[in-house]
Design brief:
- By secondary structure, this protein is an all-alpha fold.
- The chain has one domain (2-165).
- The chain contains seven helices and no strands.
- It has helices at 2-11, 14-36, 43-63, 69-81, 86-96, 102-131, 145-165.
- Helix 6 crosses helix 7.
- The radius of gyration is 16 Å and the shape is globular.
Length: 166
Amino acid sequence: METAEKTVFETLSFEERKEKADETVKKHVYAAMGVGLVPIPVVDFVGVTGVQIDMLNKLAKFYGIPFKKDRVKNILSSLVGGLIPAGLGLPVASLLKAVPVVGTTVGALGMPIVAGASTYAVGRVFVQHFESGGTFLSFDPGSVREHFEEEFKTGQKVARAAADKK
């Protein structure tokens, strides 16, 4: 089956690949935003990480890249957790929910946007990496930090626009 998927990937134009990859990222942004609404601190953070792992698994299959969950977890931890302010956004937004009344409100409003934005940024960074022939083994989080931060800012706009539509 992977061979068939890779063959399909290889027959698509850049625009067709981008459209399919963007659709995968978009679906996972919405899923991450939904998980971000979970009112329990840390559970939402773990859930968003799961959504991002699933997205990278689907993108890896699409691009014919071997996927190892443990490797991907480490990459995500380094990429998302190592950035300021973007990296702090997800855990802080999650933990804010633990503060009675005010924290719950602020966390509930902020976490879906941060979850969507970080998922968008992760997706965009990996689509570019895979398009350029990269794999999880060749991925260097340090070399994409600036690009990740730019995509995170764009992702905030995308997530806000999605939240406004609902």
